[in-house]
Amino acid sequence: MGEGDMPFRDRADAGRQLAPRLAAYAGREDVTLLSLPRGGVLVGFEIAKLLRVPLDVLIARRIVAPVNHRMTIGAVASGGVRVVDEELCRALGVSDKTVQWLADAEAREVERLERVYYGCHRAPGIRDRTLLLVDDGVATGASMRAAVTAVEQGRPAGIVIAVPVASYAAYAELSRRVREFVYCYIRDPVYSVGLWYEDYAPVSEQEVCRLLGEALDRSSPRAPQAP
Which pLDDT tens digit goes with each residue over 68-117? Predict the structure, then answer.
């Protein structure tokens, strides 16, 4: 199946297709699923529900080239993590000063999103836990690379990347850094993740918060009912 055949109806369908490939992690008390908002949360919500594991978010933002907003030149993530493709920046003629300015802007957005998504609960603990990092796809891998760097600082027991579609290039680079890299489809190149979905509608912050709230309610222990 090639890019453009749209094997996923929407992100929820992608999550349901990806979940069986993660069956080894189902029901485990040492597992936390961290989705990259916004689109990754819709994928992760379905996986977390089917695997019966807690869902939370890890915030990572792409740094895009000023001349082409579809081209990713780096990423920032929670914890002050910054990843920059210096070779690509040189090829595009993007100066260090411009990269710094763009990265600072995205870092401020990460801080704002942390206030939005962690406003009603603490950021997830990751030390000694097995982490499933989920997004709706990986093309260049910049955001996922920043996410892996961010969680590595928290000393987890293991990191698993899980995405519906990935490029060979991203897989080759990232699979060396994690315990497992799970996918439904792998191709090269992946020009746009959205081309793999019939419905790739924008996801609002309100939708992310709603799904996180539902997942939190689902994973919270229920109080015993009175006789």
Answer: 887 888 889 888 888 898 999 999 999 999 999 999 999 999 999 988 88
- Is residue 132 situated within a structural domain? yes
Q: How far apart are CA 177 and CA 55, in angstroms?
A: 22
Residue 184 near residue 17, CB atoms below 8 Å? yes
Question: Phi and psi of 9, rounded to 5°?
Answer: -65, -45
**Domain count across the chain:** 1
Whole-number percent of the chain with pLDDT over 90: 67
Q: How far apart are CA 195 and CA 135, in angstroms?
A: 15
CA-based R_g, the chain, Å: 17
Sign, CA torsion 8/9/12/17: negative
The three-class DSSP label of residue 199 is coil
Spatial distance between the Cα atoms of 175 and 157, rounded to a whole number of angstroms? 16
Query: Which of helix, strand or coil describes residue 93?
Result: coil
Task: Tell me, rounded to whole angstroms, the distance of Cα 59 from its chain centroid.
Answer: 8
Residue of 68 and 212 predicted with greater confidence: 212
Residue-number span of the structural domain to which 213 is assigned = 11-219
Q: What is the mean pLDDT of the segment spanning 187-209?
A: 93
Assign residue 183 the CATH number of its domain: 3.40.50.2020
| Distance in angstroms (rounded) separating the CA atoms of residues 97 and 3 | 36
DSSP string, 171-190: HHHHTTTSSEEEEEEEES--
The number of angstroms, rounded, from the C-alpha of 42 to the middle of its chain's C-alpha atoms is: 10
